[in-house]
Amino acid sequence: MKDEGARVVLVTVPDVDVGVRLARTLLERELVACVNVVPGVRSLYRWEGEIQDDAEVLLVIKTEATVLDALCEVVVAEHPYSVPEFIALPIVAAHAPYRDWMRAHVKEPDGKR
What we know:
alpha+beta, Alpha-Beta Plaits, 3 helices, 29% helix
């Protein structure tokens, strides 16, 4: 069950519409297997010297380590924030059939699956 290639990527966006649009772009480009769009996130953070308190939407993205650079480039290019969140976490274990499904739906940089 151990897996070193699968990743979960966390990205926050300002609203559901932006999240769905970004998710569809990533899916169409075959950079991700799945994106969960989770509304109702409250983010507190420091920005330009002040503490911010904003409603956001969290994208939980399932993908492969081999496409992280390309994935980050698309997120940054398509995101409305000047400094979007992009945090990749390793998936250390996954249900084998789900893992196989993930691999089958992410196109590697060389075009293979």
